[in-house]
Amino acid sequence: MKKLYTPIPALLLISMLLLSSACTRIGTGEVGLRINFDKTTDPAERLPGTFNQTVIGDILTFKIQDVAVAVDNMTPLASDNSTIKDFDMTVVYNINPTAVSELWTTKNRTFHGISEKDILLMQNYVALSARNAAYKVARGYESLKMADNRPLIEQQIRENIIKTLTEEKLADKITVSQIQVRAITPADIIVNSANELVRAQNELKTKEVEVQTAKKEAERIAALNANAGAIGYMNAMANLKIAEGVANGKVNTIVVPFDFRGIVNAK
Questions:
Q1: What is the pLDDT of residue 51?
Q2: What's CA 199's distance to the chain center, in Å?
Q3: Is residue 126 classed exposed, middle or buried when 0-12, 13-18 and 19+ CB atoms within 10 A define those classes?
Q4: Cβ distance 144 to 190 under 8 Å?
Q5: What are phi and psi of 68, to 5 degrees?
Q6: By the number of CB atoms within 10 A of the CB, which of 89, 115, 219, 243 ranks highest?
Q7: CB atoms near residue 8 (< 10 Å)
Q8: Coil, strand, or helix at residue 165?
Q9: Which of 175, 119, 115, 183 has the alpha carbon at shortest distance from 147?
Q10: How far apart are alpha carbons 29 and 40 in whole angstroms?
């Protein structure tokens, strides 16, 4: 027997397509909030993996995991009162999923950032806190020593941001996971002064070596002058040995006096 299939009514099919296209799925690392038709915000967070209809009202999505904030072109003052030419860093933070509704509805909109379709909760606030922390920490280091102390500076900046979050009662809502200082460039005048200092130090070392060499040479000459008699005795002994060798026929070498000037008036 041939099996019969009941066609789906066109209206029902259209309704299904509309419903499927009018849904927003919350992705991994995101949290959603429903905006009702009367523009009010539903306080219940929509978690990753859920589908939410948008036929009536809308769904706002918020990226809450590993949000990166670039804080660039800072010019903090170092402990030697020189201004750093460029100081750049990146802050990575996370938002507590259960705090999304509270942060969105109670905090000023200027505290948040936008990235494509996602709202980055508290991005601007974290950036400002990080900038203030960087200026404060940089004041404790000489400009030329900052690069060598980069890991410690990163740690101290993170601690300062956490302190600010704690004071603002946000420590349980925002977690700063990483600080990465990407660039520390001292002022040109500081770099030039450091290079001049190194050059002067190298020249001083060269002169010190020259002085030591001259001193040793002077000591050597003084020692030779002090032992002039011993040197004459050694020369006499050497001549005696040569004479004995010639007398015994052991030397087949013509011995010429050191003051020999050639044969003259020879016939």
A1: 57
A2: 26
A3: buried
A4: yes
A5: -100, 135
A6: 89
A7: 10
A8: helix
A9: 183
A10: 24
Structure tokens at 17: 């397509």
Q: Which amino acid is at 206?
A: T
Comparing CA positions, the residue from 45, 88, 94, 74 lying closest to residue 135 is 74
Any idea which residue has 């200027």 for tokens? Answer: 110
pTM: 0.64
- What percentage of the chain's residues is helix, strand, coil (to nearest 5)? 45, 20, 30
Residue 57 pLDDT > 60: no
CA distance 69 to 134: 14
Q: Provide CB contacts within 8 A for 173, sequence distance 6+.
A: 95, 96, 99, 102, 103
pLDDT digits (tens, 9 = 90+) for 6-32: 455 554 444 444 444 466 767 777 887
Burial class (CB in 10 A: 0-12, 13-18, 19+), 50: middle
pLDDT tens-place string over residues 165-214: 999 999 999 999 999 999 999 987 876 665 665 666 676 677 777 778 87
Q: What region, left, alpha or beta, does residue 66 occupy, with left being phi > 0 and alpha being psi -120 to 50 degrees?
A: left
Residue with tokens 């499927």: 20
